[in-house]
Amino acid sequence: MMKLSSQSQRNIGAALASPVILVPVISIIGNIYSYASNPAMFNFEELKLVIAFSVLTLMYAYPITIVFGSISAVVLQKFGLFKLQYVLPISLIPTLYFHLRWHLSLNWLGIFMFCSLVVALTYWLIYRWLK
Predict the structure, then answer these.
(1) What SS3 state is found at 80?
(2) CA neighbours closer than 13 Å in the CB half-sphere of residue 117
């Protein structure tokens, strides 16, 4: 049976765990925004919608993280450049691609950029923590 290297195990762990951070982050920020925009209309149904949306973000976050993020991380590690100042800008490449491809509004671009940065920061932190 083939044993994975420590670096491979850390990359797999970071790729599988980092997108999960989007659920609490989007839920908290979305509910704060929803409440702040109209406190009188805020109810349990709106809370459930925001949480459901945050769970649905995992459908795009996992494939992007596993395919693009993991490959980018391995390449940066190979060249000794797996530092936060390189990881964060590179994490924005898929978001900018989607923006150019589907002409996202600036609001959605901002949301997706924020999500990309949160996942990239979490990937980097998990990878470093798993030493």
Answers:
(1) coil
(2) 9
Local structure of residue 92 (DSSP, 8 states): T
Place of tokens 């490959």: 71
For residue 82, give the nearest of 115, 130, 114 by alpha carbon: 130
Residue 1, pLDDT score:
65
Give dist(CA 77, CA 89) in Å, integer: 15
The model's pLDDT over 49-76, given as tens digits with 9 standing for 90+, comes to 999 999 999 999 999 999 999 999 999 9
Which of 115, 130, 119 is closest to 53 using CA atoms? 115
Position 36 pLDDT exceeds 80: yes
Residue 57 DSSP SS3: coil
Distance CA 78, CA 72 (A): 10
Please give the structure tokens belonging to residue 2.
Answer: 């083939």
